[in-house]
Amino acid sequence: MGRGRAKAKQTKVARQLKYNSPEMDLERLQRELNNDNSSSSAEDYSSYEGWGPEDSGDR
After folding, report:
1. What are the b/e assignments for 13-52, b being 16+ CB within 10 Å?
2. Is the dihedral of CA 15, 18, 20, 21 positive or negative?
3. How many distinct helices (H) and strands (E) make up the chain?
4. Residue ranges of domains in the chain
5. Which superkingdom (predicted)?
6. What is the pTM of this model?
């Protein structure tokens, strides 16, 4: 018992998400995606090579 308020809140949030689409700034999203692609390179990930579960040595 006592789940009434939580369920009502979830229902309210679900309705808001379903019927009120948020404003999307597609230009900003494109800029962020372009910045992420240009800033990441193979050098950023070179230190993580060999960190997979097969190389952990806990066998």
Report:
1. eeeeeeeeeeeeeeeeeeeeeeeeeeeeeeeeeeeeeeee
2. positive
3. 3, 0
4. 2-50
5. Bacteria
6. 0.35
Could you tell me which of 3, 5, 24 has the C-alpha nearest to residue 13? 5
Question: What would the two tokens of residue 6 be?
Answer: 């939580």
11, 29, 7: which is closest to 19 by C-alpha? Answer: 11
- Token output for 56: 């952990």
State the Cα–Cα distance between residues 17 and 56, nearest whole angstrom.
43
